[in-house]
Design brief:
PAS, Beta-Lactamase, Alpha-Beta Plaits, binds magnesium ion, 26 helices, transmembrane, alpha+beta, 4 domains, 28 strands, transmembrane helix, binds ligand C2E, PAS-assoc_C, EAL domain-containing protein, rod-shaped
């Protein structure tokens, strides 16, 4: 072989070199292209070797499965012939093998409401305005008349020779169910949002998932504040754990729970909620959720409690009322029956409370009632029920007592407790006394209603026995009560039947030894009952209010008699008439008096009204005004039965009184009781210093009279002078009277012994 330089030199020399160079260049170029092509082929070969080319049938299988898994329908619409080719994957009934179902048909009808929008979107896509055709609309598929919601997506896949679209293909799915679910979800959340009740959804661990605006309104917690938090965050501090304990167990066990729970608002206030809780499954049907509906029933509960309170308690005193008393008494009786014990019922009625109420006004009356209620409760102890039945009537239930003596001891304690006056305002006091009737289970009755009735009867007996005392029920009392009721109805007719009349008891002046006047005393001669004692029918007339009518009649009658006496030449005589508390408290006494004076033409200066201390002291201020008005008419005013009440002398001094009548109680034992002597003397001295005319009542014998005379008493009245006589007889007695002619004999000389 030739060396290369030699070869090149020989080629150049031969003139063939340019051709050789060109051939070489072509060769190198071809080589580079070849290598490059080889490398590319190798690269392509190595790339395709990662997923080896699948056989056609496997590929078809995968596509089928993908179509089945997607749940989509494949569609292909021929725009020219308006034919729709559909394809979707389904499972063969038995084998479960996936198979592709195909059909071809005309385009199914589209709901008329959706059609314009579908057409609009189609047009936009066909014109190239949108890259994809997408629509959700209703179609009717096959023979089924129901509309099915379809979500379709596709695009033009083929154009004609002129470039216009001829085929459209894509996928579609039935979204009826998911749309319905979404719709229902929307409605549900809208309902939840607008519900007045608070709604909270809790997860399976009782943590908040969601709440509605009412929940925020009722609890003060926003959704963001409670989401993920345990339900206990809304429990009140006392029952936070209780809340979970109460709800969780029954809810997980029964799937539902309802009850009332105290919750704490965010601001700390407590709200009572009625909770209705239900278990629901989450969207996947797996996990449990709990829906709690809260109703704020705080106000309702409060109103219920208030109603219950109103139904069972007396609003004035706060004591149980009649309804609660019956309930408690029934229970007490049942217990006593079971245990063989005793129950005492005390019926407590305040004496003359009506007068207090009428005279001091209802507001003061109420305050006194409150004070009295507290006093009774304090006296019997907090463990015993004290109820207010009505007005001034209280009832006490005493359980666990062994004997009637024990029951009476409780009665005595209540009486004792009222010895001190009741304070009913700043520095205001009033002496009030109760009358108490006591009945016992099982001694007097077996059932609560009879026990109450008997205690009431016994209470009336306590009143009849002079008030401010207690009485244990006895069967005989029933007779008395019945008798009183019959008597009261007889008294109502007494005036019109003219069964009432007046008698007059003379009064003698000790200085003149002459009869100076008489006291008019009422008598009742009943057709049914015969002669009824004033001590029996006058309290009855006062209780029933009949005393107002009777009192006016008495006044007129007495004035008439006095006018007669004056007409018969004894214009020096005077007549005194007794006046009841009710007449005074009604406030129109002076007007009644004025009318009677005008009607009868009596000389008012010869007329005297007798009022007891307690009558005046029931309402001192108001009564003083009435008395002043009477006094201005010229009428004299006497305080009757002096010494039996507890009025203050300094107060009496301020009243326009003219006369003081010493009660016969002091006079009775005057001759042999040093205390009575001393008291009588004091009363006489005091009266004189006050410028009052002093009259001693109930003078029955000479010894009394002598003592009274010696001690400066002005007048005497009593059987020793004369009993009360009918008007004409009394005048005859007066006209004929000369010292020593009475029913008793007057001493001609004063007795040696004087009061000291
Ligand atoms: P009083 O106003 O203190 O009347 C005096 C009572 O003492 C009368 O009783 C009279 O009969 C009685 N008496 C008089 N002298 C003697 C005596 O020497 N010894 C005894 N033991 N008693 C004597 P009477 O008539 O039974 O009246 C009782 C009370 O009834 C009266 O007490 C008075 O408070 C009331 N009363 C009588 N008449 C009326 C009336 O018309 N209206 C009113 N509101 N009360 C009247
Ligand atoms: Mg009198
Ligand atoms: Mg008297």
């Amino acid at each position: 072989m030739l060396p290369a330089p030699f070869l090149a030199t020989s080629l150049i020399q031969t003139g063939r070199l340019p051709w050789l160079l060109l051939s070489l260049l072509i060769l190198i170029f071809s080589l580079v292209i070849g290598i490059h092509s080889y490398l590319r082929t190798r690269r392509e070969q190595s790339a395709s070797s990662v997923i080896p080319e699948l056989p056609q049938d496997r590929r078809d299988e995968y596509l089928k499965q993908a179509l089945w898994a997607s749940g989509e329908h494949f569609w292909d619409y021929d725009l020219v012939h308006r034919r729709l080719h559909r394809m979707h994957a389904g499972e063969r009934p038995r084998s479960g093998a996936i198979t592709v179902l195909e059909d071809e048909q005309d385009l199914p009808p589209i709901h008329e409401q959706d059609l314009p929008l579908v057409m609009e979107r189609l047009r936009a896509h066909l014109q190239g305005d949108t890259p994809v055709f997408a629509s959700e609309h209703r179609m009717r598929l096959g023979q089924d008349p129901t509309w099915v919601w379809i979500r379709a997506r596709g695009r033009v896949v083929e154009h004609g020779a002129d470039g216009s679209p001829v085929r459209l293909a894509g996928v579609a799915r039935d979204v009826t169910n998911s749309r319905r679910a979404a719709y229902e979800h929307r409605i549900a959340s809208e309902v939840m949002r607008s519900m007045g009740e608070a709604v909270a959804v809790l997860d399976w661990e009782f943590n908040f998932v969601t709440v509605n605006p009412s929940f925020t309104r009722i609890t003060g917690y926003s959704e963001a504040e409670v989401r993920g938090q345990p339900v206990t965050v809304i429990g009140s501090p006392q029952n936070a754990e209780d809340l979970r304990a109460r709800i969780q167990l029954p809810l997980t066990r029964d799937g539902r729970w309802s009850g009332d729970v105290w919750n704490a608002r965010k601001d700390g206030d407590e709200v009572l909620c009625r909770i209705d809780a239900n278990e629901v499954l989450d969207a996947d049907g797996e996990r449990h959720l709990y829906v709690l509906i809260f109703n704020d029933i705080t106000d309702q509960k409060r109103a219920e409690q208030e109603l219950r309170y109103l139904a069972n308690y007396d609003t004035l005193t706060g004591l149980p009322n009649r309804a609660l008393l019956s309930e408690r008494l029934s229970r007490a009786v049942v217990r006593a029956r079971r245990e063989g014990g005793r129950v005492a019922v005390l019926f407590v009625d305040l004496d003359r409370f009506k007068d207090i109420n009428d005279s001091l006004g209802h507001a003061t009356g109420d305050r006194i009632l409150r004070a009295a209620a507290a006093r009774v409760q304090q006296a019997v102890g907090a463990q015993h029920t004290v109820a207010r039945l009505s007005g001034d009537e209280f009832t006490v239930i005493v359980e666990g007592i062994a004997s009637h003596q024990q029951a009476e001891a409780v009665g005595a304690r209540v009486i004792e407790a009222f010895h001190a006056p009741l304070a009913f305002g700043e520095r205001l006091e009033m002496a009030v006394s109760p009358s108490i009737g006591i009945s016992l289970y099982p001694d007097h009755a077996q059932v609560p209603s009879d026990l109450l009735k008997h205690a009431d009867t016994a209470m009336y007996q306590a009143k009849a026995a002079g008030r401010h005392t207690y009485q244990l029920y006895s069967v005989a009392m029933d007779e008395k009560t019945k008798h009183r009721a019959i008597l009261a109805s007889g008294l109502r007719r007494a005036l019109e039947r003219e069964e009432l009349y007046l008698v007059y008891q003379p009064r003698m002046g000790l200085a003149s030894q002459q009869i100076v006047g008489a006291e008019a005393l009422l008598r009742w001669e009943s057709r049914e009952f015969g002669s009824v004692a004033p001590s029996e029918f006058i309290p009855l007339a006062e209780e029933t209010g009949l005393i107002l009518e009777i009192g006016t009649w008495t006044l007129r009658q007495a004035c008439q008699t006095l006018v007669d006496w004056h007409a018969q030449g004894r214009s020096d005589l005077s007549v005194s008439v007794n006046v009841s508390a009710l007449q005074l408290q009604r406030g129109d006494l002076s007007r009644v008096l004025e009318t009677v004076i005008a009607e009868t033409g009596v000389d008012p200066r010869r007329l005297e009204l007798e009022l007891t201390e307690s009558t005046i002291m029931a309402n001192p201020a108001k009564n003083a005004d009435t008395l002043r008005a009477c006094r201005q008419l010229g009428v004299a005013l006497a305080i009757d039965d002096f010494g039996t009440g507890y009025s203050s002398l300094s107060y009496l001094k301020r009243l326009p009184l003219t006369t003081l009548k010493i009660d016969q109680e002091f006079v009775r034992d005057l001759t042999h009781n040093a205390d009575d002597q001393a008291l009588t003397q004091i009363i006489i001295n005091m009266s004189r210093s006050l410028g009052l005319n002093v009259v001693a009542e109930g003078v029955e014998h000479a010894g009394q009279l002598a003592l009274l005379q010696a001690n400066g008493c002005d007048e005497v009245q009593g059987h020793y002078i004369s009993r009360a006589l009918p008007g004409p007889e009394c005048l005859a007695f007066i006209l004929e009277y000369s010292p020593g002619t009475g029913h008793g004999a007057l001493p001609l000389t004063p007795p040696a012994r004087t009061l000291s």
